[in-house]
Design brief:
alpha+beta, three-stranded antiparallel β-sheet, Double-stranded beta-helix, 6 helices, eight-stranded mixed β-sheet
Length: 314
C-alpha cells in the first residue's frame, strides 16, 4: 500500500508548467508576467520584473501572490523603498499591525526594526536563533512579514527558512494523529520581567510601551495549523513563546517539542536567503519557520519590517 499523502491543491495553484516538477511540495506553477527562480526545492524564490516603488499592475500582483502562496518566501532585489512605499506594498497582503514586543522603527508604530550593531559581539536576541514563528501568543498571529535590508554585513547574516508543511507531511500517520489533537499555550506575558533580570548587555531590545491587553499576550492555538482555503496542514509548535501543550506537563511538553524542533533543522526542508542592501523579503509566518544566522562579527545588520495581521489559527 502506498504511503504517499494526497493533498488537494485545486485552490492552491493555478496551473502547473510541468507536472513532473515539484517545488515546495506541490507542482510548480507557471508565470508569464514576472520572473521566478526557486531558491531550493523546499521553499523560497527570487522574483524579477516587479518594481515595488509603485503600485503593481493587477496581472503582476496576481502572480506575486501566486508565488507567495506557493514558495512561502519571496525575494525582491534592489528595491529602494521609502517607509510609505514599504507600507503600501505591504498592504497588498493585508492589514498592517503593531507588535507589543518588537521595537518600532523611526517613529512608525506600524514598522519594526531588527538591528545588531558592529560592536555587539553576539546576537541580542539569542532565543530566536532557533527556527520559530513570530508572535504566536497573539490571538491573530501575523500572516506574513515584509522586511527590507538597510545595512547588511559583507559576509553572513543570512535568514534561513524551514517549510512547516513539509515537516508535518513527512511525519508518520501515528505522529500526525497525535499532533492533530494537541493545542499549545503560547505566552508573551513574562518577556519584559525576564528581560529586566538579565545583565544590561544581554537584554533583548523590547518595545517599552504598548496598548495590548494581558489577554492578548497569551493564547491557545492548535499544534497543527490548516490553511484557511486549501486545508493543507503544517506543524505549528515551536520554541519561541512556547509554554506547554494543553493537558501536558511542562516536562512532557518540552520532550516532544525538542523532537519536533529538531525536524525543522533538516536541510531538505530549508532555504537560505542572503541579504543585500534594498533586498525585500515577504515570508508566510503561518506555515514557514525562520531564523537569523548570526555568523558575522564587527559588522552592522539593520533590517526594517512591517507585519500583516493574520487569521486565528485553525
Amino acid at each position: 500500500m502506498s504511503n504517499e499523502k494526497t493533498i488537494d491543491i485545486s485552490n492552491f495553484v493555478s496551473t502547473a508548467a510541468d507536472q513532473g516538477t515539484v517545488v515546495a511540495g506541490l507542482p510548480l506553477p507557471s508565470f508569464s508576467h514576472i520572473g521566478v527562480e526557486p531558491i531550493s526545492g523546499a521553499c523560497g524564490c527570487i522574483i524579477t520584473g516587479a518594481d515595488l516603488t509603485r503600485p503593481l499592475e493587477p496581472a503582476v500582483l496576481g502572480e506575486v501572490m501566486k508565488a507567495f502562496e506557493h514558495f512561502l518566501v519571496i525575494v525582491f532585489r534592489d528595491q529602494a523603498l521609502s517607509p510609505e512605499q514599504h507600507k503600501a506594498f505591504s498592504r497588498c497582503f493585508g492589514e498592517l499591525t503593531e507588535l507589543p514586543q518588537a521595537p518600532t522603527y523611526d517613529g512608525h508604530l506600524d514598522m519594526q526594526e531588527v538591528r545588531r550593531e558592529a560592536y555587539e559581539e553576539k546576537n541580542v536576541v539569542p532565543s530566536f536563533e532557533h527556527f520559530h514563528t513570530d508572535s504566536p501568543f497573539l490571538p491573530r498571529p501575523p500572516l506574513c512579514v515584509v522586511m527590507r535590508a538597510l545595512a547588511v554585513p559583507r559576509f553572513g547574516g543570512d535568514t534561513a527558512f524551514s517549510n512547516a508543511y513539509l515537516v508535518y507531511e513527512d511525519l508518520s500517520a501515528g505522529m500526525q494523529k497525535l499532533l492533530d489533537g494537541l493545542q499549545v499555550v503560547y505566552s508573551g506575558k513574562d518577556i519584559w520581567a525576564k528581560n529586566a533580570k538579565l545583565d544590561k548587555d544581554k537584554r533583548l531590545r523590547l518595545r517599552e510601551e504598548h496598548s495590548f491587553t494581558e489577554a492578548e499576550l497569551e493564547n491557545i492555538h492548535p499544534a497543527v495549523r490548516r490553511h484557511p482555503v486549501t486545508g493543507r496542514k503544517a506543524l505549528y509548535a515551536t520554541t519561541a513563546y512556547f509554554k506547554r501543550f494543553v493537558d501536558w506537563s511542562e516536562e512532557e511538553s518540552r520532550a516532544l517539542l525538542g523532537y519536533l524542533q529538531g525536524l525543522a533543522q533538516r536541510a531538505e526542508y530549508q532555504c537560505r536567503v542572503r541579504w543585500q542592501p534594498d533586498t525585500v523579503l515577504v515570508w508566510d509566518n503561518r506555515f514557514l519557520l525562520h531564523r537569523g544566522v548570526h555568523d558575522f562579527k564587527n559588522e552592522r545588520r539593520h533590517l526594517v519590517r512591517t507585519t500583516i495581521i493574520g487569521e486565528r489559527p485553525i
